[in-house]
Design goal:
It is a single chain. Helices cover 40% and strands 27% of the residues. It has 128 residues and is an alpha+beta fold. The two termini are 22 Å apart. The protein has 3 helices and 5 strands, in the order H-E-E-H-E-E-E-H. 24% of the residues are buried.
């Protein structure tokens, strides 16, 4: 799956890292980040999606699910998008990135491979 993430990174100038992760913060695939960085970002994403879901519960007409989180910091932007059942797509980009293009390309990637990104819940009673 890493080559598909490579395509996203090269289609949007200033994209630094692209990571696919499970809802519990485990890295599934990555582009541009070393494994330790990707693991740290994936773990942070688990907390962000949980926080976003808690905030989403405050909207009476919504279902509480997180669709997109964007964080702007000195030096760049971070995007986290729901990518299927139990899966998320994260992008770290430098300043100068086109926010609309990042979001569009993330949605396009999810539309193309969304069903392959789903991570079913773990069953603690079954050993793999």
């Amino acid at each position: 799956m890493d080559w598909i993430l490579n395509d996203l990174a090269h289609s949007v100038p200033y994209v630094r890292h692209v990571i696919v992760l499970s809802a519990d913060g485990l890295r599934i695939a990555q582009y541009g980040a070393d494994p330790d960085t990707a693991d740290r970002l994936a773990a942070a994403c688990a907390g962000l999606q949980s926080l976003a879901a808690a905030v989403g519960q405050e909207f009476p007409d919504g279902d509480g699910s997180m669709r997109l989180v964007v964080i702007e910091v000195d030096g760049g932007y971070f995007y986290l998008m729901s990518a299927g059942v139990g899966a998320y797509l994260a992008v770290l980009a430098d300043e100068g990135v086109d926010a609309g293009l990042v979001s569009h390309q993330m949605r396009d990637l999810i539309d193309r491979i969304g069903e392959h990104l789903a991570t079913p819940p773990r069953n603690p009673g079954v050993l793999a």
